[in-house]
């Protein structure tokens, strides 16, 4: 049987537009959020075989936490905490209290709002956990991206950690729709109504703008990294999906050091290592010290070489925006544009986490689409499957289940303006599916 | 037929009343077609936020600038602000959008935009009017919602539909 999509469950309960969804890391719980101001959790019990999937609602999180739409929801990496971003300007963090199990059963099943992250002037549109779980990034209509960092509770061991604003990133000229961490926490991407994608990272000690990626001709609604962070996809109101690829680091012109080795002798120091974002990726402090020594040497040794000023600026990690773009330090390029497939705005894109390069899109034309690479090494992508009326209305969100089913298929969740959440089974082409299943 | 389909959307459009008809299988439950005239009827009596006139009287809404495509389930409404720098253009657009949202079945995709060339900042306004997230957020603003409700109140004047008999 050729590749296809089949509906395996319909989750009803939300009473208004479903905006977002997220799977817990083990794929056993799906969280959804809605304009009805609630988050719902669903236990997903799939047999791993073909056929319907049981998905009872396990909890409804609302109480009076938010009095406006909840736009996105995301589990922390360990599944213990849920972050919910609301149009009321706050992001709530929910945790399940085990001791509450003895308490009278309630709809929220022991989930309680522990903290609210405040700061945005108005609607928060997205909130995401950093891979380490130590930071949360949020974005909103006030054109900013906020970074919150976890600080352990003051003197009260075992208490809830508190969160502090670590940075407010400004640069977008319009509201920011979506924010995503690189899978290794290296940097942050944000997508905006100003048609751009911005890349943020540490410039020396402080967070700052690294890059502005242009290409879309209207609002960018969503971003999704692939499993290893070497690619990402973006989707837009311009009805295209763009695939961005990280190029191998490029040597800056002229004064670039040629045969330098790292001070610890472990290898060559590539020129792009000088940029702030990569330096920040170095976690070992001794390593950083060595690097700083090296940079000082660089400055002393080559004060009168060509373009000394640029050298200096690189070394300091301080660059004007134009120079940054010119240097293309992280070398992201749009490698493919999926055009002509979507009939209206594309609200969400998700990249499967299995490393098998499947991209799903949620579109305002009611359809769910799955794209795959033309061949494993190709840069071209092709439409694999399309479900024309996935919802009776716009589809707002789509998310791959983190794990492959036993039979090699993949599950997907979608949510739409009709208030419904559907689960779909994507069965890849027979050969690819069995091959993938066999290798697991 | 016209009157009965009209009544389906007459009760000031709680979405729930139209949702039921959408979930049915389209092959077994044929829909009544909508036409330009019906959509015009929904919009003509909207009140201008600044003038004691309706949008029809001010020629902000015109029959010729409404297109209904039943096959594609698409409705396009272009409106003409009274002056090219009309500061209320966004609000008028929002009122049109809300009225349609409340009265037209979910299966229709609705685009509201400014009639080309009739406003200084038409691109910016069009973009915002068709960003459903911004529209949704605006409608959660009680002050704005009350202005819109005022503009759309008592705008279903079915006598004129019944006059077609």
UniProtKB/TrEMBL annotation, chain A:
Pfam families: WD40 (PF00400)
Keyword Iron-sulfur appears in the UniProt entry: no
The protein, known as: Probable cytosolic iron-sulfur protein assembly protein CIAO1 homolog
CDD domains, per database record: WD40
Coiled coil regions in record: none
Gene3D superfamilies: YVTN repeat-like/Quinoprotein amine dehydrogenase (2.130.10.10)
InterPro entries in the cross-refs: CIAO1/Cia1, WD40/YVTN_repeat-like_dom_sf, WD40_PAC1, WD40_repeat_CS, WD40_repeat_dom_sf, WD40_rpt
Organism listed in the record: Vitrella brassicaformis (strain CCMP3155)
Region annotated Disordered, chain positions: 247-266, 289-316
PROSITE patterns the UniProt entry points to: WD_REPEATS_1 (PS00678), WD_REPEATS_2 (PS50082), WD_REPEATS_REGION (PS50294)
Bias kind Low complexity: ranges: 291-314
Similarity comment: family membership: Belongs to the WD repeat CIA1 family.
WD repeats: from-to residues: 11-46, 63-94, 117-149, 169-200, 213-244, 388-424
Keywords: Repeat, WD repeat
CC per GO annotation: cytosolic [4Fe-4S] assembly targeting complex
SUPFAM superfamilies, sorted: WD40 repeat-like
One of the GO BP terms on file: iron-sulfur cluster assembly
Function: Essential component of the cytosolic iron-sulfur (Fe/S) protein assembly machinery. Required for the maturation of extramitochondrial Fe/S proteins.
């Amino acid at each position: 049987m050729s590749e296809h999509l089949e509906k395996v469950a319909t989750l009803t309960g939300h009473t208004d537009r479903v905006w977002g969804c997220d799977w817990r890391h083990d794929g056993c719980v799906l969280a959804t959020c809605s304009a009805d101001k609630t988050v719902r959790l669903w236990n997903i019990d799939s047999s791993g075989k073909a056929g319907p999937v049981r998905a009872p609602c396990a909890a409804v999180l609302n109480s009076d936490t938010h009095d406006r739409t909840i736009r996105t929801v995301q589990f922390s990496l360990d599944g213990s905490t849920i972050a919910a971003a609301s149009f009321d300007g706050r992001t709530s963090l929910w945790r399940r209290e085990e001791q509450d199990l003895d308490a009278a059963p309630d709809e929220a099943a022991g989930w309680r709002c522990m903290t609210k992250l405040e700061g945005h002037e108005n609607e928060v549109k997205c909130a995401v956990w950093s891979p380490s779980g130590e930071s949360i990034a949020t974005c909103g209509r006030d054109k900013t991206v906020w970074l919150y960092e976890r600080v352990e509770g003051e003197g009260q061991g075992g208490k809830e950690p508190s969160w502090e604003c670590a940075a407010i990133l400004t640069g977008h000229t319009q509201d920011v729709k979506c924010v995503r961490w690189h899978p290794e926490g290296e940097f942050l991407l944000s997508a905006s109504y100003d048609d751009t994608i911005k890349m943020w990272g540490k410039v020396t000690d402080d967070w700052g703008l690294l890059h502005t990626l242009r290409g879309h001709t209207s609002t960018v609604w969503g971003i999704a990294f692939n499993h290893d962070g070497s690619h990402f996809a973006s989707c837009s109101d311009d009805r295209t999906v763009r695939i961005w690829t990280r190029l191998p680091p490029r040597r800056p012109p002229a004064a670039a050091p040629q045969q330098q080795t790292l001070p610890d002798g472990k290898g060559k120091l590539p020129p792009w290592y000088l940029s702030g974002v990569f330096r920040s990726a170095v976690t070992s402090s001794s390593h950083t010290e060595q690097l700083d020594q090296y940079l000082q040497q660089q400055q002393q040794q080559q004060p009168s070489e060509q373009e000394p000023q640029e050298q200096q600026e690189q070394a300091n990690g301080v660059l004007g925006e134009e120079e940054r773009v010119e240097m293309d330090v992280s070398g992201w390029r749009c490698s493919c544009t999926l055009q002509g497939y979507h009939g209206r705005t594309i609200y969400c894109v998700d990249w499967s986490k299995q490393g098998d390069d499947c991209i799903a899109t949620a579109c305002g034309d009611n359809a769910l689409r799955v794209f795959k690479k033309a061949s494993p090494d190709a840069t071209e992508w092709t439409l694999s499957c399309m479900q024309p009326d996935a919802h009776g209305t716009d589809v707002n969100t789509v998310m791959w289940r983190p794990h492959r089913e036993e039979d090699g298929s993949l599950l997907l969740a979608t949510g739409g303006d009709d208030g419904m959440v559907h689960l779909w089974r994507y069965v890849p082409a027979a050969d690819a599916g069995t091959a993938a299943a066999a290798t697991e | 037929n016209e009157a009965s389909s009209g009544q389906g959307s007459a009760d000031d459009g709680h979405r729930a009343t139209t949702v039921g008809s959408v979930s049915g299988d389209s092959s077994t439950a044929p829909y009544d077609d909508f036409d330009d005239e019906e959509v015009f009827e929904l919009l003509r009596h909207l009140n201008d936020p600044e003038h004691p006139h309706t949008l029809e009287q001010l020629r902000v809404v015109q029959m010729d600038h409404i297109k209904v495509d039943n096959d594609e389930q698409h409705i396009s409404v272009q409106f003409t602000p009274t002056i090219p720098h009309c500061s209320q253009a966004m609000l008028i657009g929002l009122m049109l959008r809300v009225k349609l949202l409340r009265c037209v079945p979910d299966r229709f995709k609705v685009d509201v935009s400014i009639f080309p060339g009739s406003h200084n900042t038409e691109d910016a306004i069009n973009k915002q009017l068709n960003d459903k997230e911004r529209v949704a957020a605006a409608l959660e603003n009680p002050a704005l919602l009350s202005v819109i409700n005022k503009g759309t109140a008592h705008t279903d004047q079915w006598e004129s539909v019944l006059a077609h008999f």
